[in-house]
## 1
Amino acid sequence: GAVVSQHPSRVICKSGTSVKIECRSLDFQATTMFWYRQFPKQSLMLMATSNEGSKATYEQGVEKDKFLINHASLTLSTLTVTSAHPEDSSFYICSATLGGPGTEAFFGQGTRLTVV
Amino acid sequence: GENVEQHPSTLSVQEGDSAVIKCTYSDSASNYFPWYKQELGKGPQLIIDIRSNVGEKKDQRIAVTLNKTAKHFSLHITETQPEDSAVYFCAASSGQAGTALIFGKGTTLSVSS
């Protein structure tokens, strides 16, 4: 199947700093990618839909100025957590679809963010 | 928007037994229903999916059934093995390009030998 690569897999940062997470579709082009957040022992919560060449669509309750999403190419979307605080510590996962009706979503391996 | 309910939240079975996880969805427009397995610290892996024009799909020890009228779908794992232990998520979407998956809360399956 298609491969989605997410980097880094783990990151520890100091409170107040910003962290960038990359999501790449390695062997296909993805006009749309999705960013999810997962707290321990909880489900994946959709944060935003990332559209190549346009602004991301954020879910209700997700601060767009806090979680900056850029989808500059058909194979790369980035999520930047700005001015990170301990409550931003979480597991962030991206996914991409091949496109077309009823399409399978492929997930990255996730990024464990710890803000100290 | 779509809302997906998943039960049970935890499930413990003996090796060789069957395991069943059930999900319901709210949006009648949803027509794509995948199941994912997630191991600790990793991203979800698709294990099986079903589309609304099909009532049942099977892949070796794993099967999924769909009842569109009742808006529920189920995952069936037969002859469970310890390596089946993981968190399983159901999801639903309209299946159109650019539509995100909405996930259930997950089921932690434990298979003891």
Note: Chain A touches chain B through 31 residues (CB under 8 Å).
## 2
Amino acid sequence: DTGVSQDPRHKITKRGQNVTFRCDPISEHNRLYWYRQTLGQGPEFLTYFQNEAQLEKSRLLSDRFSAERPKGSFSTLEIQRTEQGDSAMYLCASSRLGTGAYEQYFGPGTRLTVT
Amino acid sequence: AQRVTQPEKLLSVFKGAPVELKCNYSYSGSPELFWYVQYSRQRLQLLLRHISRESIKGFTADLNKGETSFHLKKPFAQEEDSAMYYCALSGRGTNAGKSTFGDGTTLTVKP
């Protein structure tokens, strides 16, 4: 296991198109987090899962955003009808439960550009 | 509302000089505080966590609840410390790991 992986690393799409990103966490990690990072800012929390359950979804996420973790392993983040304001780096992180939840391991991110 | 503020976007010091990266936070409750680091072309990684009271790569950070600050310090900066540093806070219990980040400070250590 080489850590958290994300696919694709880069995505260029036209406004109005749908995109889907995938995150594969470290295999024994129960928690999985999605963050968004725009230029010059720190990561912003979007949503997180404990196993397959989505525990919370940020108010930042409009109805165009949806995330799943169907079997408690990998997760997908889908953005429908993309807008230019969606252009950002989308980061995934994973961690164990309990006190291990504080040690998050981040993936390399997926950079989305909406033209 | 929880918030993390890093007042310096850029910080430049000479090798061997002390360095302090500032972090202030607001949170209703008792948060966990962290410093993350991102080296050039690498992913974000945890540097240290306040509760562990460790010194990692010569860095330490003290939580000052009265001033709601968690400044990162190193007595003698090295060129390999050049990176982006993010301060972050997390709730506890169910909210453990759900983090709020500052906007980061880019540290440059000059030879």
Note: The interface with chain B takes residues 3-4, 31, 33, 35, 40-45, 48, 55-56, 91, 93, 95, 98-99, 101-109 of chain A (CB under 8 Å).
